[in-house]
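Researcher: Next sequence.
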Amino acid sequence: MKTTSSHPSGLAASPSVAAEKTTPAARMEMVLITGMSGSGKSVALHALEDAGYYCVDNLPPELLADFVALEKRHGASKVGIAMDVRSAAALPLLPKQLRQLREEGTDVKPIFLDASTETLVRRFSETRRLHPLSRMEASDQHRALVDAIELERELLGDLREQAHVLDTSMIRSSQLQAYVKTLISAPSAQLTLVFESFAFKRGVPLDADYVFDVRMLPNPHYESELRALTGRDEPVAAYLRESQEVSHMFEGIEQFIARWLHALVRDHRSYVTVAIGCTGGQHRSVYLVEALAEAFGANWPTLKRHRELDAQR
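Model: Next structure:
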C-alpha cells in the first residue's frame, strides 16, 4: 500500500481540535479508482492528487472501512483510493463495503479504467512488466499475458458494472487526467450524461453505454472549405443544420435518451455515456455531441468528450 500525497491532518491534533474538526462531521468524497492492469490507474490517481485529494494506491479492500473512518476523524474531505486485481481474493467484499459507506454518508464515486486487450498487451510488452496474474513459467508468454488479461476482466466484472467506465485505449495521459478531473467535478446526487464523439476507424469506445452510428449523414469532409474545420465551428454546424437527415438523427437520439432517463435514474445510475461515431470523429459526431449536450444541459448535468479532437491538443 502506498500513499501518494501528504496527509491533510499534518501533526496530531489535540483532543479539542480533533473534536472541533469532526463535529459536525463533514461529508467525505471518496473516489475509487479500479480497472485493468496497464489501463492508467496511476495516471488517474495523480490527477486526483493534483485536485487536492489525499490518495492511497493499492489499498487492501479489508482496510477500506477502517481507512475511511480514520480519515473522517482526521477531518479529510476528499480521498482517492486505487484498488486492482492484486487484491483479487478480497475484491468480492467491495460492493457491500461501498453500499455501507454510502449509507453512512460517504459520497462514493467509483471509476473503472478499461482498455482493449490489444492495447494492454502492447503496453505490457513495451514496459516489459509482468502482469499480476501472469504465469512466469509459461512457455508462450504472449498467450499467458492474454489469458491473464481475460481472467482479470472476469474477476473485475462486478466492479466494472457498478462504476463509470473510462476507455483509455486511444487517449493520452493528459486526456485521461482531464477526463478524471471533469468527472469528479460533476454533481454526485444526479445522473450525469456524458456525450462522446469518436471515429469508427479508430474503434468504438469501451466505455459507451449507447453507441450511435452517424456515418450515413452528409459529410463536411467532402466540402473543401469545411474539411479543415470541426463540428464545433459555425460553418460546419450551419452546413449540418441544413440537412433534414441530420435533424432526424438528432431528434431520434434525443427522444431515445429522454425516453429512458428516468428509468436510468431509478436504476441508480450515476453516469450514462452516449457515444456518437462518424468516420473521422471531426465533423458529424462532434456537431451532434455539442447539440445534444446543449439540449440536455438545461435540465441534466452533462459532460462532453471529443476523443479524436482532444488527442490533437
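Model: The chain has two domains: 1-185, 189-313. The chain is about 40% helix and 20% strand.
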